[in-house]
Protein backbone atom coordinates (compact mmCIF):
# COMPACT_ATOMS: atom_id res chain seq x y z
CA UNK A 1 0.00 0.00 0.00
CA UNK A 2 1.03 3.61 -0.49
CA UNK A 3 0.91 4.34 3.25
CA UNK A 4 3.20 1.37 3.97
CA UNK A 5 5.70 2.56 1.35
CA UNK A 6 5.76 6.07 2.83
CA UNK A 7 6.28 4.68 6.31
CA UNK A 8 9.15 2.47 5.13
CA UNK A 9 10.77 5.47 3.40
CA UNK A 10 10.39 7.59 6.52
CA UNK A 11 11.78 4.78 8.65
CA UNK A 12 14.82 4.42 6.39
CA UNK A 13 15.46 8.16 6.41
CA UNK A 14 14.96 8.57 10.14
CA UNK A 15 17.17 5.62 10.96
CA UNK A 16 19.97 7.02 8.79
CA UNK A 17 19.95 4.05 6.40
CA UNK A 18 20.13 6.16 3.25
CA UNK A 19 23.24 5.94 1.15
CA UNK A 20 26.31 7.44 2.71
CA UNK A 21 27.27 9.28 -0.47
CA UNK A 22 23.96 11.15 -0.52
CA UNK A 23 24.14 12.07 3.15
CA UNK A 24 27.79 13.10 2.90
CA UNK A 25 26.92 15.67 0.25
CA UNK A 26 24.61 17.54 2.67
CA UNK A 27 25.69 20.22 5.11
CA UNK A 28 25.09 19.66 8.83
CA UNK A 29 22.24 22.18 8.69
CA UNK A 30 20.61 20.38 5.77
CA UNK A 31 20.85 17.04 7.57
CA UNK A 32 19.22 18.55 10.66
CA UNK A 33 16.46 20.13 8.59
CA UNK A 34 15.77 16.88 6.75
CA UNK A 35 15.70 14.85 9.97
CA UNK A 36 13.31 17.33 11.57
CA UNK A 37 11.12 17.43 8.46
CA UNK A 38 10.89 13.66 8.28
CA UNK A 39 10.10 13.43 11.98
CA UNK A 40 7.24 15.92 11.55
CA UNK A 41 5.96 13.97 8.52
CA UNK A 42 6.14 10.70 10.41
CA UNK A 43 4.13 12.17 13.27
CA UNK A 44 1.56 13.56 10.84
CA UNK A 45 1.35 10.28 8.91
CA UNK A 46 0.87 8.37 12.15
CA UNK A 47 -1.92 10.69 13.26
CA UNK A 48 0.07 12.03 16.19
CA UNK A 49 0.12 15.65 17.29
CA UNK A 50 3.08 17.54 15.79
CA UNK A 51 4.69 19.28 18.76
CA UNK A 52 8.29 20.18 19.45
CA UNK A 53 8.34 17.59 22.23
CA UNK A 54 7.05 14.84 19.91
CA UNK A 55 9.53 15.78 17.19
CA UNK A 56 12.39 15.78 19.71
CA UNK A 57 11.29 12.41 21.11
CA UNK A 58 11.23 10.87 17.63
CA UNK A 59 14.59 12.38 16.73
CA UNK A 60 16.10 11.05 19.97
CA UNK A 61 14.61 7.60 19.36
CA UNK A 62 16.24 7.50 15.92
CA UNK A 63 19.60 8.84 17.13
CA UNK A 64 19.35 12.09 15.19
CA UNK A 65 20.89 15.10 16.88
CA UNK A 66 19.64 18.53 15.84
CA UNK A 67 19.94 22.02 17.24
CA UNK A 68 17.25 22.66 19.84
CA UNK A 69 15.52 25.31 17.78
CA UNK A 70 14.67 23.02 14.83
CA UNK A 71 11.85 21.08 16.55
CA UNK A 72 10.42 24.35 17.89
CA UNK A 73 10.42 26.09 14.51
CA UNK A 74 8.94 23.12 12.67
CA UNK A 75 6.30 22.50 15.34
CA UNK A 76 5.28 26.16 15.42
CA UNK A 77 4.80 26.16 11.66
CA UNK A 78 3.30 22.67 11.29
CA UNK A 79 1.18 22.27 14.43
CA UNK A 80 -1.99 22.63 12.35
CA UNK A 81 -2.38 19.35 10.37
CA UNK A 82 -3.94 21.25 7.47
CA UNK A 83 -0.63 23.04 6.90
CA UNK A 84 1.18 19.73 6.44
CA UNK A 85 -1.56 18.43 4.14
CA UNK A 86 -1.32 21.62 2.08
CA UNK A 87 2.46 21.34 1.82
CA UNK A 88 2.20 17.72 0.70
CA UNK A 89 -0.51 18.31 -1.89
CA UNK A 90 0.58 21.68 -3.30
CA UNK A 91 3.18 21.69 -6.06
CA UNK A 92 6.27 23.87 -5.76
CA UNK A 93 6.40 27.55 -6.61
CA UNK A 94 5.58 28.92 -10.02
CA UNK A 95 8.17 29.70 -12.63
CA UNK A 96 9.54 33.15 -13.38
CA UNK A 97 7.65 35.65 -15.46
CA UNK A 98 10.00 35.34 -18.40
CA UNK A 99 10.59 38.36 -20.31
Summarize the structure.
The chain has 99 residues and is mostly helical. The chain has helices at residues 2-14, 20-24, 28-45, 52-61, 69-78, 81-89.
Principal-axes shape call: globular
The proportion of residues in beta strands is: under 5%
- Which secondary-structure class do the elements indicate? mainly alpha
Average pLDDT score: 81
Low-confidence stretches: none
Number of strands: 0
Radius of gyration: 15 Å
Instruction: Give the biggest beta sheet.
Output: none
Number of helices: 6
Q: In sequence order, what are the helices and strands, one letter per element?
A: HHHHHH
Distance, first to last CA: 45 Å
User: How much helix, percentage-wise, in residues?
Assistant: 55-70%
Descriptive notes:
This protein is mainly α and 99 residues long. 66% of the residues lie in helices and 0% in strands. The chain contains six helices and no strands. The mean pLDDT is 81.
What is the secondary structure topology, with strand pairs?
Blueprint: H1 2-14, H2 20-24, H3 28-45, H4 52-61, H5 69-78, H6 81-89
Helix pairs in contact: 1-3, 3-4, 3-5, 4-5
Describe the structure using short key phrases.
mainly alpha, 6 helices
